[in-house]
Amino acid sequence: MDRLACVDLPSLSLQLLLARHPEWAELPAAVVAEDRPQALVLRVNEAARAAQVFPGQRYAAALSLAPELRAGVVPPHDIEATVAALTIRLQRFSPRVEPAADGFGATDPDVFWLDASGLERLHGSLAHWAESLHVDLGSAGFIARIAVGFTRFGTYATAKAQARAGVILFGDPAEEDAAARAAPLDRLPIDPAMGAALRKLCIRTVGDLVRLPARGLLERFGPEAHLLHRLAAGDLCPPLAAHPMEETFEDEILLDFAESDATRLLFLAKRLLDPLLARLAARGEGVAELRLRRTLERGRGPREDSIRPAAPTLDALLLLDLLRLRLEGAALPAPVAALHLAVRGAPIPHDQLRVFAEERPRRDPHAADRALARLRAELGDGAVVRARLLDGHLPETQFAWEVLEQCAVPRPSGADGAGASRFLVRRICDAPHPLPPRPRHEPDGWLVRGIAHGPVLRLIGPYVLRGGWWAGEEVHREYHFAETQRGELLWIFYDRARRRWFLHGRVE
Amino acid sequence: MARWELAELRGRLVEITSAAAGAPLSVAIDLVAKAQRGGETVAWIAARPSNFFPPDAAASGVDLAALVVVRVRGAQVAARAADKLLRSDGFGLVILDLEPATQAELSTALQARLLALAQKHAAGVVFLLEKRGDAPSLGSLVSLRVEARRRRTTEGRFVCDLFALKDKRQASGWTHGEAFDGPAGVR
Questions:
Q1: How far is the CA of A286 from the CAs of A55, A289, A290, A309, in angstroms?
Q2: Could you identify which of A30, A197, A472, B97 might form a hypothetical disulfide with B128, taking C-beta atoms 3.0 to 4.6 angstroms apart as the criterion?
Q3: Residue B43 contacts residue B95 (beta carbons within 8 Å)
Q4: How many other CB atoms are there within 10 angstroms of residue A261's CB atom?
Q5: Which helix (H) or strand (E) holds A232?
Q6: What are the residue ranges of helices labelled H in A256-364?
Q7: Any CB–CB contact under 8 A between A357 and chain B?
Q8: Mind listing the pLDDT tens digit for each residue in A257-305?
């Protein structure tokens, strides 16, 4: 059974604010939308709640309730950067991590889902894994509530409902479901007006909400409530949309003789860079960051540099120019004994990938069509054709030649040649050729195509094709492959109706 | 280095010859499939009273709907058709399947025109000819001449070897082999 973990970092923006201002930890603190009196209060800590300051109030009003309130703005890009960094951090615990910035129809950057399936084999138990995750987040300065269970909503609701930071682990889906239904609705990030309306109706927990009719909820409270109902009831179970893991490509070269000349070091860096660019291009990415590490001789500490082009690029000349500027910068105290280059990729526009694609000229399909029209005009309409496969019984009825008016983009089977099947191809005669009769004595001295081609050494077959009896035109052919002394592999058949051998083609 | 890929054949006249136990058609169809996988449009000029068996070509990965087949009689007509196709810059590979008896119709002037067009438009031009390896080549303008040989390995399995009789870009004498399955029924 799949296991899922939900990591809730309650009021992430507030945690970031308090990390910036640790002296505010014991005071009422709030995140406000803007640094002005009429700005909305977005998040508050427990000390602020105790002073009756709640999200949704105006900053000025909150200050009047709690004069010692400390407030600050956390820009959205700070939150995005933190979410991105946390995603990478959490990918150390699970290869599949989904940040819930767009989770459940509402922005909730506090939440991450991790695929916990199979991880007990690596960590001994899921409990140990979850504890390690909790400790790691704590060491990074985050307060986290972690629920390990079976469903997204179940783990989400129970993580949100936890009163304190910590880990909760469910042993079976029923246990998780019971805990999720007991979760208070005011712990979930739902619309305050909707929450107030539900409280008036004594709908206080997820279980209370699930017992309501979905259609009525939609009509009375709108799509957000309906969505929440579907998620809580298990009618909607979106699969985990894991954030792709960032892969760093790197390579290193150890120098036989330490080098201090910048130009020679640049050439060595180029040797490392070219294959890395090719690997990035294969993934459709360009270089977003170059990290160069020069290990110095005589045990001196390595020199690390990070180079970022203006935009992700596969332009080797541009990247080498940036490297050159860095290498020619400050002189190093000792020669370089080893060079390490790492590149971090990022998606780039498709036309940049042409640099690394095979040097294939662009073809003009309209010009090709015009050439076909000229050929038809010169040679006749039936001269320019393409083959179309049919469901025929006899070889000549398995295909037809149809007039070709326009070129089509090739869509061959098999993505690449490595795994593609190869079959020997037969050449089929326009019409079967009559052959001389086969001598009665065995083995063959049968000269199928004259002395020059030698006798038939081996006949493989027969493969009987019969048909047409239902239309009064019975066809009975016994196909063989005839190997001659010269090595030809002829494709022949014996026509029972006409009592004659025919050559239909050969394997070439 | 992959010697038998379209990238190696661009801008060249290539001749595939074979004796009786050869596999020129299979090798050429395999080249068509490779070119199509690389996104190139291919034209097959059939100048013989026989042609490749389309179901076998489809089994080998060729997109028949995109393969242009031009049916003509005579090597000279075939070369003029190839001229028109190459001149359009709409084709990356043109294969001419010729009758050996009409080979003499391919004058040096015709070959020179095809070579110039192949070089200008970075296309490959391949001639299929049934003749032995010791028979004379089409001409000096042919940049690569290979003999396609077929040998059986196990039941129903074959290897098609390309033996370079002439290669102007590198030393001839190289071989390139690829495994093929026989058509249904061949053991």
A1: 43, 9, 11, 10
A2: B97
A3: yes
A4: 11
A5: helix A223-233
A6: 262-282, 316-327, 350-353
A7: no
A8: 888 888 888 988 988 898 888 888 777 788 888 999 999 887 777 888 8
Q: How far is CA A54 from CA A25, A35, A188, A230, A249, in A?
A: 17, 17, 15, 29, 48
Residue A446, token pair as written in the block: 């049968």
- List Cβ neighbours of A257 (8 Å cut-off, separation of 6 or more): none
The token duo for A469 is: 């009896």
Residue B51 has its nearest CB partner, among A384, A412, A428, at A428
- Cis ω on the peptide bond leading into residue A462 (within 30° of 0)? yes
Chain B CB contacts of A370 under 8 Å are: 88
Give residue A119's identity as a one-letter amino acid code: L
DSSP state of B184: T
* Beta carbons of A404 and B68 less than 8 angstroms apart: yes
Between strands B12-18 and B144-152, the pairing is parallel
* Closest to A464 measured CA to CA, from A430, A489, A496, A425: A496
- Please tell me whether residue B9 adopts helix, strand or coil conformation: helix
Decide if A83 contacts A60 (C-beta within 8 A): no
d(CA A199, CA A186): 9
How much is the pTM? 0.52
Closest to A423 measured CA to CA, from B54, B26, B44: B26
Min Cα separation B171/chain A (Å): 24
**pLDDT over threshold 60, residue A360:** no
Q: By the 8 A CB rule, do A423 and B182 touch?
A: yes
Using CB atoms within 10 A of its CB, is residue B24 exposed (0-12), middle (13-18) or buried (19+)?
Answer: buried
Nearest CA in chain A to B122: A361
The token pair that represents A239 in the structure block: 């699969």
Q: How far apart are CA A38 and CA A44, in angstroms?
A: 16
CA-to-CA distance for A29 and A62, rounded, in angstroms?
Answer: 10
Residue A379: Cβ within 10 Å count: 18
Indicate the DSSP class of residue A240.
Answer: P
What DSSP line would sit under B80-122, residue for residue?
Answer: HHHHHHHHTT--SEEEEEE-GGGGGGS-HHHHHHHHHHHHHTT
Partners of residue A490 in chain B, C-beta under 8 Å: none
B-facing residues of A in 448-507 (CB < 8 A) are: 453, 460-461, 463, 479, 481, 484, 486-489, 505, 507
Q: Is the ipTM of this complex over 0.90?
A: yes
Q: Are A174 and A195 in contact (CB under 8 A)?
A: no
Q: Is B122 on the interface with A (CB under 8 A)?
A: yes
Count the neighbouring beta carbons within 10 Å of the beta carbon of residue B170.
12
Please tell me the distance from the alpha carbon of residue A320 to that of residue A269, in angstroms, as a whole number: 8
